[in-house]
Amino acid sequence: MITAACLTKGSTSDEAARYIFSGVDVQLEYHRIIADVFLATAEGKTQYSVIPIENTIDGSVGLHTDWLVDEVELPIQTEWVFPSIQNLIGPSSELTEENGEIAYDRIVKVLSHPVAMAQCLQYIRKYIPHAELEHVGSTSEAVRIVRDNPHRGWAAIGQISAAADNGLDVLERSVTDHDNNFTRFLLVGPEPFRNGEPNLYKTSILINMPEDHPGALHQVLSAFSWRRINLSRIESRPTKKKLGDYYFLIDIDMSLDTVLLPAAIAEIEAIGYQVRVLGSYPSYNYVAK
Q1: What are the chain's domains?
Q2: Tens of pLDDT along 70-116?
Q3: To the nearest 10°, the Cα dihedral for 41, 4, 251, 159?
Q4: Cβ(65)–Cβ(184) under 8 Å?
Q5: Would I find Lyase among this entry's keywords (predicted)?
Q6: pTM value?
Q7: Is the four-CA dihedral 138, 144, 147, 148 of positive or negative sign?
Q8: Pairwise CA distance, residues 253 & 257, whole Å
Q9: Which of 56, 138, 150, 156 is the most buried (most CB within 10 A)?
Q10: pLDDT for residue 139
Q11: Beta-strand (E) ranges in 75-127?
């Protein structure tokens, strides 16, 4: 049996974990904060950690990236994309009219994770602009709080599975502002993992420059360019050593088990830059199951 740590039960991370482990004997261990998810695997309590790393609307999750780079040494073993579909959840007996329509004027507070809330702001402003918005640690926690506080006019934004687990109703499905809202997840841990045929193989690297100078990034990119190696993502993050000092995080659409990519990395190292490989792994697009 595989063991994996992820964020709380009923969250998008929980649903994404069940997706990537589909057909696999797995035991999921749930945590309220991302630090505990990482540490569960870093300390050997689980084999893997499930990490949301980027969202269509909100972009990269900086805290999670920093943990991956600065706090633990857990290689990326798999990447997959999962839809982030948020729903308005609450007790229908309290928050709907006799005809079944939502009584928006009865909703006085909406609770959710800040990222999920941000994905639904247009919906909230249109239908519940009067409601107080409260951020909590996860979407599943928001649903539990609503369950434990009946008759107060509270609703949550979260997943359908969380509503079912807590005996609440889905008042309205898919209240996310954009239909193409997806989250990119990473599976990190000491051992390779693959479940089915991937769409492609990718490699993630971290590049530190000993000193900033004109044309530094161009030198790095040219090592990939003339070899026709496709880069799917480039992100700069502060090194936290001094103001204005950054490293580059680069995702490459190529496995490390090739001739071209190791040669490109060797060229970058030869001009004095430090390269750290964060992982070379299979990548899966979402397919409804």
Answers
A1: 2-83+182-188 (3.40.190.10), 87-172 (3.40.190.10), 200-284 (3.30.70.260)
A2: 888 999 999 999 988 899 999 999 998 988 899 999 999 999 988 88
A3: -130
A4: no
A5: yes
A6: 0.83
A7: negative
A8: 12
A9: 156
A10: 87
A11: 76-83, 87-90, 109-112
